[in-house]
Amino acid sequence: MNTLELEGNLLNMFVALALGGVEGENLFVPFDAWDCGIVYGGDTFSPHHDVAAIWPEVMRLRISTTDTGDGRWVVAMPTPPAGQSLPFPPYLCTNPLDGYRYAIVWSVFGSEVPDTYESVHFGLVNLVPYNKIAV
After folding, report:
1. Torsional sign, CA 46, 51, 52, 57
2. Would you say residue 85 lies in a domain?
3. Are residues 125 and 114 in contact, defined by beta-carbon separation less than 8 angstroms?
4. Which of 3, 64, 100, 128 is 20 to 30 A distant from 93 in Cα terms?
5. How far is Cα of residue 67 from the mean position of the Cα atoms in its chain?
6. What single string gives the DSSP state of each residue in 93-108?
């Protein structure tokens, strides 16, 4: 799947994975109750509402935002993340948290994320249907 097309809890799941989340240790992904949200570090993980959940990584990656003056923002990273050949493209959005989340996922997974996930609780999960369910 295209990283920049991730939505809702699936995007949040990949953010948690990019931050070092490990299912069964500090990450719980409730595929059977998807609307309950992702649990990371013992708490409901809501980086789409809570900048503190991702701010240290935003700073570490030097992700920047520029106000375009019309209610939109451009989110960018200065260089391609280590191990990635493609730089994160400047991302135009109405909420910088969306751009931050995409940039964090891109920094680990690049432009494409896997279509499946090997869950410790649910086995091999096809992720495509979960991308259509918003937070």
Report:
1. positive
2. yes
3. no
4. 128
5. 21
6. ESSHHHHHHHHHHHHH
Q: Structure tokens of 128?
A: 């495509």
pLDDT digits (tens, 9 = 90+) for 50-102: 999 999 999 999 999 999 999 999 999 988 777 777 899 999 999 999 999 99
Identify the domain containing residue 29 by its residue range.
3-129
Phi-psi region of 107 (alpha: psi -120 to 50; beta: other; left: phi over 0): alpha
The length of the chain is: 135
Q: What is the pTM for the complete model shown?
A: 0.94
Q: How far is CA 37 from CA 31, 74, 76, 97, 123, in A?
A: 9, 27, 27, 17, 19
**CA 48 to chain centroid:** 9
Among 135, 47, 52, 56, smallest CA distance to 99 is for 47
